[in-house]
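2024-03-11 09:14:02 DEBUG pipeline.ingest accepted 1 chain
2024-03-11 09:14:02 DEBUG pipeline.ingest length=107
2024-03-11 09:14:03 DEBUG pipeline.predict start
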Amino acid sequence: MEKNKEKSTFVSESTRLTFDLKTIVLIIGVAVSVSFTYFTLNSKIDKAMVEPAPDVTRMEFNYKDELVRSSIEQVEKDVNQIKDDISEIKEQLNKMDERLYEMSKNR
């Protein structure tokens, strides 16, 4: 236990830190990079808060409206086709059911 006490160090005013040139340049580079990123983002946020929101033009609105309407019409066509297919399947099932009933009746 006494060895741990001898190796423990305390940071004080007289503590000396030694860094090589590469480490100092790296620390300065990271600090400059972080501060540059912060100020760039800050200025972009300020600019975005001042600028008005882009207006949707009438032509753009018409195109989007037309696209939505055509999509709805296509979906309606598909639903109607599916309904027709289901009706045909039901008719075929009813015919098959009648035939099976007739066959079981004749036995």
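2024-03-11 09:14:41 DEBUG pipeline.report DSSP finds three helices and no strands in the chain.
2024-03-11 09:14:41 DEBUG pipeline.predict end
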